[in-house]
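Re: beginner question about structure tokens

> Can someone show what the tokenized structure looks like for a real chain? I only ever see the sequence side.

Sure, here's an example I had lying around. Input first:
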Amino acid sequence: MAYLFATDQQRRQMLDEIGVPSLQTLLDQVPTELQLDRPLDLPPAQSELELEQHLRKLAARNASSRTCFLGGGAYDHFIPAVVDEITGRGEFYTAYTPYQPEASQGTLQAFFEFQSLICQLTGMDVSNASLYEGGTAVSEAVFMAMRVNGRHGKVVLCGSVHPEYRLVVETYLDALHCEVVTVPCPAGTVDIDALKTAVDDKTACVVFQSPNFFGCLEDVAELTRIAQSNGALAVMSFDPVSLGILKRPGDYGVDIAVAEGQSLGTPLQYGGPYLGLLTCRQDYVRKMPGRLIAKTVDRDGKDCYVLGLQTREQHIRRDKATSNICTNQGLLALRATMYLSSLGPHGLKEAAELACRNAHYAAEQLCTVPGLSLMYSAPFFKEFVLKVEGSVSDVVARAQQAGFDLGPDLQIFSGLSSEHAQGLLVAVTESRTKAEIDGLVAALK
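And the corresponding structure tokens:
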């Protein structure tokens, strides 16, 4: 939000208009107990030059040569320089929601290309023009499933889905009095027998994640079969980069596939903003949340782009809206478009293969450190859980002292069973080198 100053004359005009003698008269209406009865302890005023110099000194303290092995939903992936170059252009960097399609052809085309790339990436029929981030994408998929099959009484979540995603779903559904059943995952993947028991003819959908929160690969085909055999929709949360080497959600026949799109060209940037991906089968397109950009021709036969579906409450009658999702993450969707376009299928495959090799090398080497072992034996992609004998926080502190960031410590997440108390999540992307991995192992030894 911009700061707009007012001159003394303008202030006087505004006060005269509302019939108040001074600004203090307005402030005096604030209850005494809410007023600050002392001056603020602020430093002396500075000129613009002095302020800039001061901020540069503060910013210099952020310079770091630390190495990131952090996971848990946001990752330090390589971003080609072209992504920053293109998305930093004024016409893209300042673009907002295309309320007037006829005047927003460039923005609409970019979103159309984004949808096309995401469909190619996932093997799904339709993609919307993005959502907020991974957690709300899962929740929107749950609501969408309810609209598709008309079941509103029960949702089944696999316990290996990111705990924060599950909390978001539970928060949304609490007011709807919908039963949320969480199926345990004792060996790092969902208990198939327990899932079969949990799913019935009242279940709207089954939500699972692969690679899951612990980095393990789930039996997606079986999870999809269990859901659909009971009339429920199969909702899959996936890792976009993993699709460079793993089977796509559409190839498994899942109904709705969602993801956190941060790994597609968006830096970590202190937790956000990020990018929610949502795709589905063609049959369910009219139940999708958000926006769908379509391509057509104008009266002269030239290509043009339109808002094909606008199912938010600001565009149509509230009772017809599929969601109250508002601000589309357009800039982050554009970054994903640039990232996928610059890498292409072969580049994405190379990035995924390198991340997978790095992760398995790191897991093998870290298990040579006394007191560390793999918590689960299930196959994994780029992320895994270390079982720590002793204090997890001590291992994290030792790594940090040597310039390596590990984690998160699974103890910080609610909704996980006690068996995870000694768990430490480690993520290794294509950005990590053998020397960095060996340095981490040496520091912990």
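Each token stands for a local structural state, so reading them left to right follows the chain. The first helix runs from residue 8 to 18.
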